[in-house]
UniProtKB/TrEMBL annotation, chain A:
The Small ribosomal subunit protein mS35 mitochondrial conserved domain, residue ranges: 178-247
Species annotation: Nezara viridula (Southern green stink bug)
Name of protein: Small ribosomal subunit protein mS35 mitochondrial conserved domain-containing protein
InterPro entries registered for this protein in UniProt: Ribosomal_mS35_mit (IPR019349), Ribosomal_mS35_mt (IPR039848)
A biological process from GO: mitochondrial translation
Organism placement in taxonomy: Eukaryota, Metazoa, Ecdysozoa, Arthropoda, Hexapoda
Gene Ontology CC: mitochondrial small ribosomal subunit
From TrEMBL, chain B:
RNA-binding found in the keyword field: yes
UniProt keyword list: Mitochondrion, Repeat, Ribonucleoprotein, Ribosomal protein, RNA-binding, rRNA-binding, Transit peptide, Translation regulation
Principal location class: mitochondrion
Assigned protein family: Belongs to the mitochondrion-specific ribosomal protein mS39 family.
Name by which UniProt lists this protein: Small ribosomal subunit protein mS39
Subcellular location: Mitochondrion
GO BP annotation list: mitochondrial translation; regulation of translation
MF GO annotations: ribosomal small subunit binding; rRNA binding
InterPro entries according to UniProt: PPR_rpt (IPR002885), PTCD3 (IPR037387), Rib_mS39_PPR (IPR055063), TPR-like_helical_dom_sf (IPR011990)
Domain of life: Eukaryota
Cellular-component GO terms for this entry: mitochondrion; ribonucleoprotein complex; ribosome
Organism from which the protein derives: Nezara viridula (Southern green stink bug)
Length: 357, 641
């Protein structure tokens, strides 16, 4: 066994010598000889199952491949960069003549650009340099028409063309060119641009509901029910038209609208005012004489009902009522007892509250 | 996009706003009409060619950019064969590729249906196959329909006849394989022989149809002319004549272009063309640009005739009056017609360039692509630099570069381009073009490399040699037809001291490159002059050890090597041997000189004898080479002095 092992070791050593002295062909011959059964006593005999000749293999000595230096070296300084990098592309160090560095190296400077994965990972905007964009703009100029002079400012645009239409186009690399989201249409317009009287406006607002933004005064209508954009666009305009004309129509049942249906506190028709007049009458006073006080009371009560929940009026109105009472007592000696106006206002308040759920 | 719709909305509301905004007039301009791809084309027009980049079909990476014609071809074709393999897999495993995710559906992405004896076929399927250009499938389905005794309408039969006549029952290379078509060369010449399938399906269909459909005559004549079955085509033509059948313009075009094949003498050919044209006029068939080209094609075949040029010019004038402008191939035929006479050719080419300058050509005839290479060949023949620049300018105008043809005609164009440039233009200008075009657009053939090397030699511009040598290495031209010999020869003439090192690098890398190959099939043989030049260059830059190696090779090859080394090299070698006092090597060299038969041998021997102390054995050897007398004469002279 030991002899076999030693012979095994011997062979490669012999080859090493032969390699440096003979050409490659000579080595082939020796190995071929060695693989023939029985030619070498020390060698393991190989079992030739297929029989026949051993297939001749031509092994070419591989030549070292000539690789051109990166083309950045040949680039002239005044070259047009947008020709070199015309579109979006992954970073390539041999095409970008910039000494870029990216990434972290704890032992020194950041790694350079060659073979740097960090540079390949991040999206680059080398194709959108300012000169390239300028060129694109110049090329697209022939498709553009001049902007109407009358619409030079944003205010003018909004003034003359108050209807704003918003739609989105989607462009992505997938087999489909369609995107269901592209069908959605949004139209926006300021409410005060529509011709509406008080009734129509009231009805309009009731119809549009939360599509009206009170802060900006803009109505927004979004349509996405139909499968196509065109249909949605037509539908949006139809909705606008329908709502507008609907708000102008006066249905017979609208006469039945009573005070509780109102969306604001109507002081002139309120129970509270009635009570107050009654009170002044009892005191044989003219309401006009106490105009200032009545106005203040009116303001606070209207505020109390209209802006219920927004501010804390609880401590506002009793003050006014008390002042009214004191005025009453000061103004005439034969007035009612101090509690009465309070009760009256209280009653008025309750009356109003009952009628105004 | 958003703006567009805003404007649309605006236009709708314009009327309503006019009512209460009378004081401002808002004038919204009309939208400029544009096609679906106009924006893309406009953006693409901002991108010009990048001279340092390879063609966009290759990967922009130093390891994957091809630098010679072989790799260019193999890289492009292997990319395409990958596509073919993908298509094959898709066809083999159809069931796996039935998902239709594309919206709208792309027909080319789904596997094509296959037909066998049992498949359900009808006329609609046949129509579709004809429209899509599947030759074998269409023929199979047609036979299937016949076997099943399903009737086919004459109109479908007619379109099948036209299809078969167009393709001659052969499947053409699909238009999808752009690279394959680009690198397809040498196929044009084979096509000039009669390849028409006699008694094939086309003729069967024709005999079935001819009584019903008159246009079947047009189809069969076109097909026969296209595949050079000309005599039969004319037979059918006369049959149609006798039956008073009106043929279409394409039929007349193809008959005119093949007029040469039925008549021998030039006047008769011209007569036939004229009768055909007159017939067209009688029958009110409007000719087109291809009629013009067919006439010119026939005339170009008889360019030995004196009248050919007048006929051609008259024809062009007449077609111009019909508002038919000549296409590029018409100009090509004009050059062909004038090719016999150099002065005519020169005036013709300059007239053509006057006509064509600044014009943006589009393809109007299939053969339009042959113009540029032909015109450049003519330029080079005339040795006219001005014409060359004008022609090159025309090539670069607009999209004219698309008409350069295929890789073959492109390299023909640039081959003549560089021949003429190196002949007539100063070297700096040549190198400007060289740097711009090589290797990404054009890789010079060995003959062009030699021409450039010659120009370098004439201008003594040795500083260009290292660059040229590295290009030669890249283009793998160091083994072919004298390129290596030439560059070594020029390098050995170098007189600039600063460039010596560069030259010796070239020489040594040439030596290593050739010696390093040792390929079985390499049939490169050193010529003695090349080896001599290497020795000369190496010795000039003082690399004695390397020179010794090369000298050994030279001695080993002996007189079996082609031609002989420069005597200057051997003389320098002997001197260097004397310097390093190595007489043995020097004697070997003298032995070699003697074997080759240089007269300077004795002079060398004397030089060695006089400057080095030789031991008796060496002296004996020297005398055995040159004879004792010579050396003795030398000694006597010394003594007498």
């Amino acid at each position: 066994m030991s002899t076999v092992v030693s012979s095994c070791y011997k062979k490669p050593v012999l080859f090493k010598f032969s390699k440096s002295f003979f050409s490659f062909d000579n080595i082939r011959k020796t190995t071929d000889l060695a693989s023939k059964p029985g030619s070498d006593e020390d060698e393991f005999r190989t079992l030739d199952i297929r029989g026949g000749k051993t297939p001749q293999t031509y092994s070419r000595k591989k030549q070292p491949r000539v690789v051109f230096p990166p083309r950045t070296e040949r680039m002239p300084v005044d070259q047009d960069w947008s020709n070199v990098w015309p579109g979006p592309r992954t970073f390539h160090p041999a095409s970008v003549p910039l000494p870029l560095r990216q990434g972290i190296n704890k032992l020194g400077a950041s790694p350079g650009k060659v073979g740097n994965v960090e540079l390949m990972k991040i999206p680059n905007f080398l194709h959108l340099t300012p000169p390239a964009i300028k060129k694109h703009c110049m090329a697209l100029k022939k498709f553009c028409t001049p902007w109407p002079r009358a619409l030079s400012t944003n205010e003018n645009c909004q003034k003359y063309f108050p209807l704003e239409l918003i739609q989105t186009d989607y462009c992505h690399s997938s087999p489909s060119i369609r995107n269901p989201l592209a069908r959605i249409i949004t139209i926006k317009f300021p409410l005060d641009k529509l011709h509406l009287d008080e009734h129509a406006k009231d009805k309009f607002l009731r119809l549009v509901g939360d599509r009206y933004d009170e802060e900006t005064g803009i109505v927004t209508i979004v349509t996405d029910k139909c499968p196509l954009r065109k249909q949605n666009y037509d539908y949006a305009l139809y909705l606008l038209t329908a709502v507008y004309y609907e708000s102008w129509t006066f249905e017979h049942w609208e006469i039945e609208k009573s005070q509780p249906d109102l969306e604001y506190y109507d002081w002139d028709n309120s129970k509270c005012k009635e009570n107050l007049i009654h009170l002044f009458k009892q005191a044989n006073q003219n309401m006009e004489e106490n105009n200032l006080l009545v106005e203040r009371l009116k303001e606070s009560i209207v505020a109390l009902f209209d802006e219920v929940g927004t501010t804390d009026h609880k401590d506002l109105w009793p003050g006014d009522v008390v002042s009214l009472q004191t005025c009453d007592t000061c103004g005439s000696s034969d007035s009612l007892e101090g509690g009465q106006p309070h009760v009256a206002t209280n009653h008025g308040f309750h009356g109003a509250a009952a009628g105004h759920p | 996009m958003k703006l567009k719709y805003l404007l649309r909305a605006v236009q709708k509301y314009k009327c309503s706003y006019k009512s209460y905004s009378t004081e401002v007039e808002i004038d919204i301009p009309k939208r400029i009409p544009r096609g679906p791809t106009d924006i893309l084309k406009a953006l693409a027009s901002t991108v010009k060619r990048d001279p340092t980049a390879p063609h966009y079909k290759y990967h922009d990476d130093p390891y994957l950019i091809p630098y010679n014609n072989f790799t260019k071809r193999s890289y492009a074709l292997s990319q395409e064969s990958g596509r073919k393999a993908a298509r094959w897999i898709r066809q083999q495993h159809k069931e796996l590729f039935q998902h239709k995710i594309a919206e709208p559906l792309i027909e080319a992405f789904i596997p094509t249906p296959e037909y066998n004896e049992n498949s359900e076929v009808d006329e609609e399927i046949l129509k579709k196959l004809i429209n899509n250009g599947f030759v074998s499938d269409a023929l199979f389905v047609y036979n299937l329909l016949r076997n099943k005794k399903i009737d086919i309408t004459p109109s479908t039969k007619q379109s099948l006849l036209e299809f078969v006549c167009f393709t001659n029952e052969d499947e053409p290379i699909s238009e999808d394989w752009i690279s394959e078509r680009w690198f397809l060369m040498g196929m044009k010449n084979q096509k000039d022989s009669n390849t028409w399938k006699n008694g094939g399906l086309a003729e069967q269909l024709f005999y079935e149809l001819k009584s019903d459909v008159p246009s079947s005559y047009s189809a069969i004549i076109c097909g026969m002319c296209k595949y050079f079955q000309v005599s039969k085509a004319f037979e059918i033509y006369s049959e149609a004549q006798s039956k008073n059948i009106i043929l279409n313009v394409e039929t007349y075009n193809s008959l005119i272009s093949k007029a040469k094949f039925v008549n021998e003498s030039h006047p008769k050919i011209w007569e036939l063309i004229q009768t055909l044209l007159n017939e067209m006029a009688e029958r009110k068939i409007k000719p087109n640009v291809k009629t013009l080209n067919s006439v010119l094609e026939s005339l170009s075949k008889m360019n030995t005739n004196r009248n050919a040029k007048t006929y051609a010019l008259n024809t062009i004038a007449e077609f111009k009056s019909l508002n038919i402008e000549p296409s590029l191939v018409s100009l090509y035929y004009l050059l062909e017609i004038c090719s016999r006479n150099k002065s005519q050719l020169s005036s013709m080419l300059s007239a053509i360039l006057d006509y064509a300058s600044n014009k943006n050509f589009t393809i109007r005839d299939k053969k339009d692509i042959s113009f540029f290479s032909k015109a450049m060949e003519v330029c080079s023949k005339l040795k006219d630099k001005d014409l060359l620049y004008r022609l090159h300018e025309l090539l670069l105008t607009g999209n004219n570069y698309n008409l350069i043809g295929d890789s073959f005609s492109e390299s023909v164009y640039y081959r003549y381009f560089f021949y003429l440039l190196t002949d007539t233009e100063e070297l700096s200008k040549v190198m400007e073009f060289y740097d711009d075009l090589v290797p990404n657009v054009y890789v010079p053939e060995p003959s062009v490399t030699n021409a450039i090397l010659k120009a370098v030699c004439n201008n003594m511009a040795w500083d260009l040699l290292p660059k040229l040598w590295s290009d030669i290495l890249l283009f793998e031209q160091y083994e072919v037809s004298g390129v290596l010999e030439n560059i070594l020869d020029i390098a050995s003439q170098n007189e600039d001291k600063n460039l010596m090192e560069g030259m010796s690098k070239i020489a040594w890398s040439a030596w290593e490159k050739i010696e390093g190959i040792k390929r079985e099939r390499s049939n490169f043989q050193w010529s003695a002059s090349a080896l001599g030049n290497i020795i000369l260059i190496l010795l000039k830059s003082g690399e004695k050890a390397k020179a010794n190696l090369v000298m050994n090779k030279l001695i080993q090859l002996g007189s079996s090597a082609m031609n002989e080394p420069k005597i200057e090299a051997l003389s320098l070698y002997v001197d260097s041997c004397i310097e390093s006092s190595s007489p043995d090597v020097a004697i070997k060299c003298i032995q070699y000189c003697n074997d080759i038969g240089f007269t300077e041998t004795t002079e060398f021997a004397r030089r060695i004898n006089s400057s080095i102390e030789l031991n008796p054995r060496q002296y004996e050897k020297l005398t055995s080479i040159v004879g004792e007398d010579c050396l003795k004469v030398e000694k006597k002279k010394d003594q007498s002095r």
